[in-house]
Each structure stands twice: as structure tokens, then as C-alpha cells.
Amino acid sequence: MEGAIALALPLKIGQSLKVEVNNSRLLSWKAYTPDGYWFNAEFDITTLDIKTTDNTEIASRLKDILLKTIIISEVNFMGNSGCSIETICDFNPEYGFGTSSTLISNIAHWANIDPYSLLSITFGGSGYDIACARNNMPVLFQRVDNEITDVDTEFDPPFKENLFFVFLGKKQSSYQEIKNFKDNGKFNSIDIDTVSKITLDLTLTNDIIEFENLVEEHERIMSNILNRPTIKSLLFSDYKGAVKSLGAWGGDFVMFTTRLPEKSFRGLMKSKGFDVVFRYDEIVL
After folding, report:
1. Exposed/middle/buried for residue 164 (C-beta within 10 Å: 0-12, 13-18, 19+)
2. Fewest Cβ atoms closer than 10 Å to its Cβ: which of 60, 95, 96, 246?
3. CA–CA distance from 80 to each of 23, 25, 96, 182, 190 (Å)?
4. 81-133 pLDDT, tens digit each
5. What string of DSSP letters covers 261-273?
């Protein structure tokens, strides 16, 4: 959000949006996850007033997104007759794998508008996850003020079998974490330049020890900026390897480097109460 270059990795899993036009005079929305049905709402097609729903909070948020989409598009992209929407999310929404960003990307694509513009007036944030939603390979992402660049890059480390992602089981609020960063983050231009250099070095190294050193340096910098302990010092102080916070810092998923066989690593995580573990090649596109 402050100009540092980020390495963004699109995932194999995502979210789809299907639109079918009808004559119901309603916008009917149904959402599904891997566990099946998740959410339902019906809106007046003209006013977007909520007619029925099983989750008022989600329906209200969705209404707000659609109204702001209309403002940006300057046309009623939904039409006046009615339509049926179906979204299918390939992952548990609690994982923080981009439920909101993939939705914003899909709605913007439907309305033929800039997804970054829609993100800025809905959820906020840097937009790196929007870049992931529309890319098929790793991206070097940078946002300087309101200017965004996302450039395809190579990232296929020879030690990727040593990289795992572990869910900590506590979904972070991106909105709240952004607010905390803006209110309390303390950094300077040297920090921004250092983080950018770390990102570029991460894409170039073929050595896992150098990779671990870069990851741990990044964690130290963010710990100082946010005035929070690193996730390794909090939960994994005796772990022999690097531990990197991802997404909203301190929650959702963390990345581990390990020399252990996969079965042993999964067993170690399970013994600490963490059952959701993905290999790098399981989820990174």
C-alpha cells in the first residue's frame, strides 16, 4: 500500500461467477463453497432492495458492491428484466484465499469496469490480490499512490517441495488490518526500498538458506513496522526453519520452509493443533 514491490502468487483455486438473464424482475444470488450451499439473497432488480436472504450482513455488503459498480460503470449493466447469479468458490471462505478479491474481479469483469477502481471504493487495500485474480503466473506488484503496475515474473524455486502453507485457524479482517497499519504503522523510505529488494532477491535465489534469510529479514522489518511479534516467536519459537506471515499479518495462512518429509511435517503441525496444510505445488498456479 506504500510503494514496496510485492511478489504475488496466483492460486490454482478461485471463484467463478455465472449470470443468466430472466424475466423475474429480481436479482437472485446463490453462492456455493466446497461444502455445498453457502448463501442466498434476492434483490429488486431496479433498486437492489433486499427482498429475501439468509444472511443480512453478506446481502447488505453485496448490495453495496453492486451499487458502487453501477456508479463506476455509469450504466445498468444488470439490465431491468432480472437475472440469476451463481458463484462457486473452490475453497473454504475462512481461508482468506481471496473470497472478496475474486468476487470484485468477477463483478468488474461482468460490468466491464476497472477492478482496481471497484476495490478502492469497496474493500480497499493495495490490490495485489486483484492482480492474482486475473493472472496465470507470478506477478511483481507495486502500488505507488494510485498508480498500479503488475509485471509477470518467474518464480519456480528448486526447493518448492520444502515449502508448505499452514492455516492458523483465525481469519483476519483485511479491513481492520489495513486500518491498523494506516493508524499505527511506522516506517520510512529505507524500509520500503529494503522490502522491495527482498522481494526481487526472493525471485532470483536458488538457495533455500538464502531464501530463509530473506524471509526472516522481511518478518523482522514488518515486526518493527507493526510493533508486533513475529508469528514464529509467538507460536513456533523452537521451529528449525523459516516461518512467514501471509495476507493480513499474523493470521490466515503462514508459509513454512522445512527439511522434514511431508508426512513428518504434517504430523508436527497436527501435534501443534494445525490440521490444514498445503504443499506449495498443491495450490500455487
Report:
1. buried
2. 60
3. 9, 7, 34, 41, 53
4. 999 999 999 999 888 888 889 999 999 999 999 999 999 999 888 899 999 99
5. -HHHHHHHHHHTT
* CA–CA dist 126, 248 (Å, integer): 12
pLDDT tens-digit profile of 100-110?
899 999 999 99
DSSP state, residue 162: G
Q: Is 241 left (phi over 0), alpha (psi -120 to 50) or beta?
A: left
Q: How many CB atoms lie within 10 A of CB 137?
A: 12
Looking at the fold, whether 84 and 182 belong to one and the same domain comes out as no
Residue type at 43? F
**Prediction pTM value:** 0.89
C-alpha cell, 225 = 513496522
Read off φ and ψ for residue 37, nearest 5 degrees. Answer: -60, 140
Q: Which domain holds residue 224?
A: 156-283
Run of H or E including 133: helix 128-133
Distance in angstroms (rounded) separating the CA atoms of residues 277 and 106:
28
Domain total of the chain: 2
- Which residue type, as a one-letter code, is found at position 41? A
Distance CA 60, CA 70 (A): 16
SS3 string, 65-132, reads: HHHHHHHHHCCCCCCCCCEEEEEEECCCHHHCCCHHHHHHHHHHHHHCCCHHHHHHCCCCCCCHHHHH
Residue whose entry in the numeric block shows the C-alpha cell 535465489: 205
How far apart CA 262 and CA 280 sit, in angstroms, is 11
Residue 230 lies in a domain: yes
Quote the cell numbers at residue 97.
484465499
